[in-house]
Amino acid sequence: MIEETPALRGLVKEPRERDSGNTILSKEFKGGVMIITGANSAVGLRSMPVRYLFLDEIDGYPHDVEGEGDPVGLAEKRAATFSRRKILLVSTPTVKGVSRIEKEFEASDQRKYFVPCPFCNHMQWLQWGGIVFERDEKGSLLPESVAYKCEGCEKLIPEHHKTSMLDAGEWRPTNPEGPANIAGFHLSSLYSPIGWKGWVAIVRDFLESKKNPIALKTWVNTTLGECWEQEGDSVDDLTLYTRREDYPEVPMGVGILTAGVDVMDDRLEVTVIGWGKGEESWVIDHAIIFGDPARPQTWEELDQYLNEPLEHESGASLRIAAVAIDSGGHHTASVYSFVRPRQIRRVYAIKGVNQPGKPIVGRPSISNEAKVHLFPVGSDTCKELLYARLRISEPGPGYCHFPMSADAEYFAQLSAEKCVTKYVKGFPVRQWIKVRARNDALDCFCYALAALAILGINSKKLEALVDRLQHPREEGDESKVAQGSGRNWVMEWQ
Ligand SMILES: [Zn+2]
């Protein structure tokens, strides 16, 4: 950015020069220095006084850094000694009620960018509710119908007026009670200049993403720049129960199988999930292996179960491509010793990390006694994703199918948790709590999801796997699919 901006170019020396004062995290210039640090580093946040503070993507910040408290508060203290300080907080919003930027914006004068109607000059700020569009009989969008309805004269404003409207626009506070020294600005993609993302593309994205709550959340957050209002924080087991279907052992839509194993003191529970295009999923089986995990026999039984090939509707024989086993309970050592010789077969040890915003699977560590690859799994993220998918009511991307063999207890366990907003050190945080003691089915499903994430199979690859099973090109091709691509995933992580 420095190189491409005429006003900045030349102010900071070339990084290649000796003692240039220009490193990745520090840029010296005449009259000052810019320091870049991470919101997860307490040392970085309290290192030196600063007059100008820019905090980016604050909705992604942790609530506590290394036991020293809120990173935003820590950073803001750095500016306290400057009477003419300026602090900028910027973020894409996330979930209503827990979003930091929402809270900050509400405490500001809440400026919106008002633009004039080209017909009646009425000043207004652009919002999604003003966008109008029509569709043909087949439901396809008619691009020429997309326009903005003026809230003054109600005439339809075509998008080509936007350039002149933006030129004539101005920021106006919408919160008269707001403090004079805190300016807040909100802008959505509807304002994107001509040539960037247009209204037609935005409406198309909306029509596409409204089929799927996860995609719709992203659309609301990134396109409208608004918080997502979580609809319902739990799933209903009876509704799910009525969705059971009669399907073959591994139905045609499945391209790959993964399994998740939960370890209890008297048993192992395992769920096998079949994944199709767009991560549409089929529960293939949920099994309970009774026995003390401290005894080798229990694990031998699991081994046999996991090695059993399953019959795909195409006639191919399919093996489980990856297994994730929870090592977080009382039997960590047993899990490690089971996993160790089997990592080559993609049987992995995982450990849940109960923090919001963690990825489904993080980078594995090997700093354990058994030297096995231990994958951190963002349990909250998994549950959030799974519950959003369970609320999808029509088969297609993300939808979850259940077999007739799943009983009422299975669904009770699957819906055993709900997400509530709790206050931690004064911050609202979304937390998963058990509404029922047993939640093994839910955990197993999440671990199977983590196993798929460890494989790192993207949507294109998943589609190819499904297509190859549905249309085998040559004799023996199915077995190749069944065994995956033949790459050693453990090696890759090393
Ligand atoms: Zn008008």
Describe the protein in words:
The protein has 494 residues and is of the alpha/beta class. Helices cover 26% and strands 24% of the residues. The chain is built from 15 helices and 23 strands. The chain has helices at 42-45, 71-78, 100-106, 162-167, 199-209, 213-222, 237-241, 296-307, 332-339, 379-390, 408-414, 440-455, 459-470, 477-482, 489-493; strands spanning 22-23, 26-29, 32-35, 52-55, 86-89, 111-116, 123-125, 131-135, 141-149, 156-157, 170-173, 185-186, 256-263, 267-275, 281-290, 310-311, 317-318, 320-326, 347-353, 374-378, 400-401, 417-424, 427-434. Strands 20-19-18-13-14-15-21 form a seven-stranded mixed sheet. Strand 9 (141-149) and strand 10 (156-157) form a beta hairpin. Helix 5 packs antiparallel against helix 6 (213-222), helix 10 packs across helix 12 (440-455) and helix 11 crosses helix 12. The chain is globular, with a radius of gyration of 27 Å. It starts with 21 loop residues before the first strand and ends with a helix. Zinc ion binds next to loops.
